[in-house]
Amino acid sequence: MKEMDGLWVKCKQCQQIFLVKELEKNLKVCRCGYHYRMTAQERIDSLIDEGTFIEWDKELVTKDPLRFPGYAQKIQKCQSDTSMAEAIVTGQGDIHGIPVAIGAMDSRFIMASMGAVVGEKIVRAAEKALEKGWPLILFSASGGARMQEGVLSLMQMARTSAALTRLSEAGLPFFSVLTDPTTGGVTASFAMLGDLIIAEPAALIGFTGPRVIEQTIRQKLPAGFQRSEFLQKHGMVDIIIERPKMKAQLATLLSLHMPMAGGVND
Amino acid sequence: MALPLEFEKPLFELETKINELRTFSQEKGLDFSSEIATLEMKAEELRQKIYRDLTPWQQAQLARHPDRPNTVEYIRLMIQDFFELKGDRLYGDDPAILGGVGRFLGRPVTVIGHVKGKDTKENIYRNFGMPHPEGYRKALRLMRQAAKFNRPIFCFIDTPGAYCGIGAEERGQAEAIARNLFEMAGFPVPIISVIIGEGGSGGALALGVADRVMMMEHAVYSVASPESAASILFKDAGLAPTAAAAMGITAERLKELQLIDRIVPEPSGGAHRNPAGTAKELADAFAAELEQLLSLSKEELVQKRYEKYRNLGLHTIETAQEAF
Ligand SMILES: [Zn+2]
Asked: Where is the CoA carboxyltransferase C-terminal domain (chain B) (predicted)?
């Protein structure tokens, strides 16, 4: 994240200058409400009870099946820049004592585009949730498909969706949390399939990115187009939650989705 | 007949020459039959060579050929008693996707497909085969109906991609596509999809989660059009031929990568050279795949579909030796 380099940061929205440390203490949310992008690890740390997180499939990597020009180098660079093998972290952990399967995408890694590894980690997380009877929570942030994997990347939309079909049939909750930016094939698959669709404020969420739409229709897009609030107004998002409240509200929402002894179905 | 594609020009010139010679010999009552035979042999050789050695970019151009049979024509040639059923019951009817019910080899089937127009006027009506959310929601409605009445589902894929525009975003293009993927994974009836021309991105996949995915020999299937992939990856839309080659978009390559199940042969020169013959080949392929799928119980069918997607592309990933 360029604007976070160094000790000081100038907020994109309010133009005020802050200590990076101060911003990080506030989960990368400016006093004006601007939500900076988080890394996957920061996301997990902000949500999961200390000491309960166990990461899954950390070392899974692509074999670059198309031998796509420049892809192997690009992967390598992202790996050394982020110390991650791929664009998503998945694992298990507790949110205020409630065990969940969780995934968080990291937009530093080729815009967290979805190739076979990202798809497989999501499928495995859904299957693990199914096996354990846990809720699944996925934090998306993605430019969409991983172009360098061709149709294989497209197939991850089908694979992740099919895994969610099974989870849904088993009556287990899936919360999809959309963060800035969530576009393309990720939006058009698992991210839009949550029992609850939650968004962070002002996140860019859409199928086609705004620049491509502008080029296609040759007109300026209205202010706020494809932002969380716009999607909510158009019926695509249930709840917008500010980051500092995310953990507590997720915990409450999780508890509202837990089967109750003596409840309707027990 | 539309204009020949660049790489087809030598063949078209030769074919024109043969026709002229034939007309000339008839008019003058002269016998040029041995000359014509020689030229025809040459033309056939050239035809074989051109269409056997197509580059991925040439394949993409052929796949978009305006004369290629579209969903409407395949339905006319393959399906009896067809009734088009319109509307998503939510917002409207999208002419970019056509759907309905008909009979295939005596059996009721639900048929859904993208439709590209044959000329400018029809293309405007069909939005060049680029659906809005209503199109996908109509498709979903018809698939649910197929599941209810226990009819197999046939999907014809032929789209540059889902439409991108303000209305499409407002009405949830992404949600509409995602919902189809989600529900198609669970329908307890056989689903067979075929890419007949251009299979572009998520907008194609929304009709492409199937027990069997087939491709016409000269169809292409890609995560993004070669033009947009080139502009995103190489910052130059002019490098579309390079992107087309790099992405692996042809039927042959995708079969090799185990991402599709079957290639349906086309006549030399492409489906538009013989639509009826091509439709016959395609009908045979549908019949063969359907017969296999009908032998499965509903549970087996859904289970096998899940396993198919579960295992798809697993050969392309591995566990790294180094730690991260
Ligand atoms: Zn600020």
From this structure: 38-292
| Distance between CA atoms of residues A135 and A139, nearest Å | 13
Do A131 and A137 meet the contact criterion of CB atoms below 8 Å apart? no
Q: Which residues of B touch A84 (CB under 8 A)?
A: 324
The CB density around residue A1, as the number of other CB atoms within 10 Å, is: 13
Q: Decide: residue B25, CB within 10 A, 0-12 exposed, 13-18 middle, 19+ buried.
A: middle
Q: Which residues of chain B are under the pLDDT cut of 50? A: none
| Helix, strand or coil, per DSSP, at residue B117 | coil
B259, B316, B324 member nearest A62 (Cβ):
B316
- Measured between CB atoms, does B167 come within 8 Å of chain A? no
pTM here is 0.95
| Residue A78: φ, ψ to 5° | -65, -40
Rounded-to-integer distance, Cα B312 and Cα B314, Å: 6
- Which of B88, B93, B168 lies closest to B125, judged by CA? B93
DSSP state of A255: H
* Cα–Cα distance measured from residue A192 to residue B273, given in angstroms and rounded to the nearest whole number: 42
Collapsing DSSP to helix, strand or coil, A65 comes out as: coil
